[in-house]
Amino acid sequence: RAQSECEIEDISVLKLELSALYNDIREALKTWNEEVYELATYHFDGNGKALRPHVVLLLANAINFHLGLSSERQSTVCKAQKQVAMVAEMIHTASLIHDDVVDRSDLRRGKPSAARRWGQKKAVLAGDYILGISSDILAKIGNPHVVIVLSQVLVDLVQGEMMQLGTKEGENDRFAHYLKKTYNKTASLFANSAKAVAILAEASEELQETAYLIGKYLGLSFQVVDDILDFESSTELLGKPAAADLKLGIATAPVLFASEKHPELNEMIVRRFEWPGDVEHAFECVLASDGLEQSRLLAKRFCQEAKKHLAELSTSAYQLALESIMDGAVFRKK
Ligand code: FPP
Ligand code: MG
Ligand code: MG
Q1: Of 228, 207, 180, nearest in space to 60 by CA
Q2: What is the spatial distance between Cα 43 and Cα 24, in angstroms, rounded to a whole number?
Q3: What does DSSP say about strands 107-108 and 111-112: parallel, antiparallel, or unpaired?
Q4: pTM more than 0.90
């Protein structure tokens, strides 16, 4: 049987692993307290894109293949790498539950947000509980370097969210601020989980860095598209409120690009679109400019960069599947 055929079969096995991963997460969240369990598992219902665990598992397999791990070694390493995929999805979901408190958002993945259903206090606690259990899983992997790398993600998430709450930079620093925030709030999780699975495969520092960069640029590309979809897509398609960023006072790539040709946006950015009519006016400026087109180009550039680093690994079905996920992330509609 041809090698590629064998690998493609491995990828459908990966799909099964992904649904097993959700079961494992629900299992790990079990507790005597039924209310805590209900809240904590609310968003692990298979409605999400599961992009992070997908990417982490594919990349882990691509790296193991690149390193030519023996099948015995591979089964030990894979087990720990799956736990990293679980932790990544748990950190992500906990941060979304908290995010819906910060953003006062009622809708997540097509259903009422946890904050909407149970109130802000319980939603915060549910996120904390998920983080607590994920810390336990992380510690039990038993590799301090992996703990350090994934702890950094939590620090970055908080910093990213803080950066988003206040924009005091001058016009020239705004884009750098946006990119740094985007790294912190989205790309760090992709980058550091990618690095963690490379560490577990005992990859060289150079290969760990390659994994990190693949995750980083995929994450940046993904978030820029998210910011585009906030303007282009609908609440129905997204399963979360569309046109939300301006209302929250947040200026993302499309607005920042648009401000080059519509300088009146600058004052609105500084006052966080607070005056009556600002949100509508800014929305029109973005649509009348090439802000969305330029943002799409930026997302494509990040995607190219991710693919460039991915090409440093030996060709495998995993690597090809990752490449198509990267392309898909740029052209997605939700
Ligand atoms: C979604 O962004 C939010 C994030 C990617 C991160 C949120 C992080 C925190 C609230 C800090 C707390 C962190 C931890 C570890 C619990 P968005 O609001 O732009 O996207 P949305 O449209 O999906 O709401
Ligand atoms: Mg939000
Ligand atoms: Mg937010």
Answers
A1: 207
A2: 14
A3: antiparallel
A4: yes
What separation in Å is there between the alpha carbon of 285 and the centre of ligand 2? 23
146 within 8 A of 199, measured Cβ to Cβ:
yes
By three-state DSSP, how is residue 313 classified?
coil
Cβ–Cβ < 8 Å for 98, 124:
yes
Q: Whole-angstrom Cα distance, residue 139 to residue 295?
A: 39
Proximal ligand: closest to the CA of 183: 1
Tell me, in angstroms, the distance from the centre of ligand 3 to residue 103's CA.
Answer: 5
C-beta separation of 90 from 131 below 8 A:
yes
Q: pLDDT tens digits, residue range 307-327?
A: 999 999 999 999 999 999 999
Q: Which ipTM score applies to this complex?
A: 0.97
The secondary structure element, H or E, covering residue 107 is strand 107-108
Atom of ligand 1 nearest to the CA of 154: 15
* Residue 43 and residue 109 in contact, taking contact as beta carbons nearer than 8 Å: yes
Which ligand is nearest the CA of 226, by number? 1
Find where tokens 């912190």 sit. Answer: 184
Which amino acid does the sequence have at 143? Answer: N
Please name every residue paired with 108 in a beta bridge, in sequence order, or none if there are none. Answer: 111
State pLDDT tens for residues 77-127: 999 999 999 999 999 999 999 999 999 999 999 999 999 999 999 999 999
